[in-house]
Specification:
Chain lengths: 115, 114
C-alpha cells in the first residue's frame, strides 16, 4: 500500500538558517511523483516543488530543493535562508499511476521560523 | 493565486442539512479532485473527475456526491450533515499528464456544521 511518512510534527528554525523537513514514502509502483505543499495559517495549499521518480537530478525551485534518495525512499525538503513567511504546515505528497490516479498526503510538519 | 476558484469561502449550516460546494478548475485542466481536511483525519482524498467522468474514489461517504459538468466546473454535494463533517474542503485541478501532473489547490471552503 502507498504511504507517506513525515516523522517531525513540529520544527523550529532560526531566521536565515536552512532547514530540512523529512519525508519517506512507500510504493511498489515504479512511476510516481513526489510533491511538497505549504499550508500557511490562512489555509490555502500552495504547491512548492515536484520530483519525478525517474528524474536523475534533485529538483530545485528558488529557496526550495528536494533531496531525493530513491533507494532510501526519501524525499526531504530543504528550505534555505528561512524567512518568517515560511512559518506554515508543510505536506509531502505522492502521486502514483495505478488503476486509479490519486495523491496521497503525509500528516504534515509544522515549521516555525524564529526571528 | 493558483487559478482554481472555490465558492463559498465559508459555510455554516445545521445538522441534517444539505450543501453544495462549487469549484472551477484552472483554465485547460481537465481533472478535478476533492479533498477533506479535518484536524483528526488530516487531508483525505474524496473523489476525482476527469473530463466529466468519475475517475477515482477515495474515502467519500455515501452521503456525499460530486459531479463535473461539461464546462469542467465541479460540485460536491454533502447531505444529511453531521457535526463530524465540519472541515476544510479543497478542490484541486491538474492537466492530467501522468504521475508528474501537479495538482493546484483552490482556497478551500470551510464548512461548519452546528
Amino acid at each position: 500500500a502507498q504511504k507517506i511518512t513525515q516523522t517531525q510534527p513540529g520544527m523550529f528554525v532560526q531566521e536565515k538558517e536552512a532547514v530540512t523537513l523529512d519525508c519517506t514514502y512507500d510504493t511498489s509502483d515504479p512511476s510516481y511523483g513526489l510533491f511538497w505543499y505549504k499550508q500557511p495559517s490562512s489555509g490555502e495549499m500552495i504547491f512548492l516543488i515536484y520530483q519525478g521518480s525517474y528524474d536523475q537530478q534533485n529538483a530545485t525551485e528558488g529557496r526550495y530543493s528536494l533531496n531525493f534518495q530513491k533507494a532510501r525512499k526519501s524525499a526531504n525538503l530543504v528550505i534555505s535562508a528561512s524567512q518568517l513567511g515560511d512559518s506554515a504546515m508543510y505536506f509531502c505528497a505522492m502521486r502514483v499511476k495505478t488503476s486509479y490516479d490519486k495523491v496521497i498526503f503525509g500528516p504534515g510538519t509544522s515549521l516555525s521560523v524564529i526571528p | 493565486d493558483s487559478g482554481v476558484t472555490q465558492t463559498p469561502k465559508h459555510l455554516i449550516t445545521a445538522t441534517g442539512q444539505r450543501v453544495t460546494l462549487r469549484c472551477s478548475p484552472r483554465s485547460g485542466d481537465l481533472s478535478v479532485y476533492w479533498y477533506q481536511q479535518s484536524l483528526d483525519q488530516g487531508l483525505q482524498f474524496l473523489i476525482q473527475y476527469y473530463n466529466g467522468e468519475e475517475r477515482a474514489k477515495g474515502n467519500i461517504l455515501e452521503r456525499f456526491s460530486a459531479q463535473q459538468f461539461p464546462d469542467l466546473h465541479s460540485e460536491l454535494n454533502l447531505s444529511s450533515l453531521e457535526l463530524g463533517d465540519s472541515a476544510l474542503y479543497f478542490c484541486a485541478s491538474s492537466v492530467e499528464g501522468g504521475a508528474g501532473a501537479t495538482q493546484y489547490f483552490g482556497p478551500g471552503t470551510r464548512l461548519t456544521v452546528l
